[in-house]
Amino acid sequence: MSKKGIIDYYNDTVEQWTEQWYKDSTMLPFLKECKKILNDKIDVLDLGCNSGYETRRMKNIGLNPTGLDLSEKCIAIAKNKNRDIKFVHDNMLNDLSYLGKFDAVISIASIIHIKEDKLELCFKRIYDILNDSGYLFMVVRAEEGKLDASYKTFNNHEYDREIYGYNKELLERKMNNRFIFIKEMKAHDNHWKYYFYQKSTIN
Predict the structure, then answer these.
(1) Among candidates 179, 174, 172, 48, which has minimal Cα distance to 121?
(2) What is the largest CA-CA distance in the chain?
(3) Dihedral pair phi/psi, residue 179, rounded to 5°
(4) In sequence order, which residues have a C-beta less than 8 Å from that of residue 70 and are 6 or more positions away?
(5) Which of 51, 109, 164, 167 is the most exposed place for a label (fewest CB within 10 A)?
(6) Which phi and psi angles does 43 have, rounded to 5°?
(7) Distance between CA atoms of 62 and 188, rounded to whole angstroms?
């Protein structure tokens, strides 16, 4: 039997993510560090926002976020719970220039779903919507290759969530000089890496 894919998984499980993560502030220190680096810049894109829980936290700490996600159900719930935040249903690999420019793109466990042969396109899309000297803040998996965590069973359905881990060298190679490394922040556990980058002006 064929497995369901990423969109099906998040459409089918969005209620569980919403119930857990609107209450779980694990990512708040990371977001506060993003805010500190941004200083007085506030326009950010929450790339892969699910139902908007971290987007809500971004708003609460003084940022001006827009949320974007591949799952239509996630976006519907995000809009319903956060009437004061803009949410967009789209694929991060598409041309997002219609959204305008941002001071930062914040990607929390979303680039982990991008296959290696699409990574360079992903970073180009991010680069293109950032203001000059804008930032990319990423939460990615520490392990390498396609992870066992890709495979999940929920309500008797099997899913392939396509979760990938990449080392820093590979990520930066796929950035193709579009971003400059700033620093790494200590992650909440050893399955994750928190990376901070700034848009390059030499590309």
Answers:
(1) 174
(2) 52
(3) -135, 150
(4) 6, 7, 10, 48, 89, 90, 91, 92
(5) 167
(6) -80, 110
(7) 23
Distance CA(182)–CA(196), nearest Å, equals 5
Distance CA 55, CA 87 (A): 9
Give 120's DSSP letter. Answer: H
Please answer whether residues 110 and 77 qualify as being in contact, where contact means their C-beta atoms are separated by less than 8 angstroms. no
Neighbouring C-beta atoms of residue 88, cutoff 10 Å: 16
Q: Please tell me the pTM assigned to this model.
A: 0.95
Measured CA to CA, the distance from residue 109 to residue 51 in angstroms comes to: 14
Is-contact 37 182, C-beta < 8 A? yes
pLDDT digits (tens, 9 = 90+) for 127-150: 999 999 999 999 999 999 999 999
Classify strands 145-146 and 164-165 as parallel, antiparallel or unpaired. Answer: antiparallel
Q: Which residues contact 50 (CB under 8 A, 6 or more apart)?
A: 10, 14, 17, 18, 21, 69, 71, 74, 78
CATH of region 6-36+48-115+126-133+142-199, choose from 3.30.930.10, 3.40.50.150, 3.90.1150.10, 3.60.110.10: 3.40.50.150
Amino acid code (one letter) for 100 = G
